[in-house]
Amino acid sequence: MKLKVYAILVLGSLFGLTARGQQVAVKTNVLYDVTATINAGVEVGLSPHWTLDVSGNFNGWTMSHERRWKHFLIQPEARYWFCDRFAGHFLGVHMHGGAYNAGGLKNGISFLGTDLSPLSDYRFQGWFLGAGVGYGYSFILGRHWNLELELGIGYAFSRYDKFRCAGCGRKMEEDKNHHYFGPTKAAINLVYVF
């Protein structure tokens, strides 16, 4: 329900604006597309060097063998463009928040104090909030099309419940906290600029 409200707000803000040259862009992150995560973003020009980018992601599917990577994410970002907005280098400051239900994902990943290997045998369900900074570059492909690359690092606070297996409902731990430091944004965006 919350995702629907956020989507309506983003689309409403898009339609309430006049679409002048380099004022509004819509985008999709190809990295999320390949993981079957529905995503979309809207970026609005605020001044000659500043834009506001708001993206949302949703994955509600249970994969085969009870594997789960269900989540939704909202990530607004203020961007400063070094030359013209929607072209070239930019720095961003973003916030992020959402919820997740993940488990049954075989892996041995551990970095920067976060061990993701328990996702192999357990399911985690919870929410997160955080912020970060990013750097990116937007390549102009044509009159209306851009390809945008961005990486971000930051912090996220998460509160979660831990379950015995990916598909069962037996709770092992409740209201646990986790502090995450590391990558918070990775994007290869295909962008249409109005």
pLDDT below 50 for ≥5 consecutive residues: which ranges? Answer: 14-20
Beta-strand content estimate: over 45%
Residues in helix, %: under 10%
Largest sheet: 8 strands, antiparallel, barrel
Give the distance, in angstroms, between the N- and C-terminal Cα atoms.
30 Å
So how many helices?
2
Pattern of helices and strands: HEHEEEEEEEEE
Q: Structural class per helix/strand content? A: mainly beta
What strand order characterises the main sheet? 1-2-3-4-5-8-9-10
Compute the average pLDDT.
87
Radius of gyration: 18 Å
What does this molecule look like?
It contains two helices and ten strands. The chain is mostly beta strands and 194 residues long. A hairpin with a 6-residue loop joins strand 4 and strand 5. About 4% of the residues have low confidence.
Question: Layout of SSEs?
Answer:
Blueprint: H1 2-15, E1 24-29, H2 30-33, E2 38-45, E3 50-59, E4 68-81, E5 88-103, E6 110-111, E7 114-115, E8 123-140, E9 145-163, E10 171-193
Antiparallel strand pairs: 1-2, 1-10, 2-3, 3-4, 4-5, 5-8, 6-7, 8-9, 9-10
In short:
By secondary structure, the protein is mainly beta. The chain has two helices and ten strands.
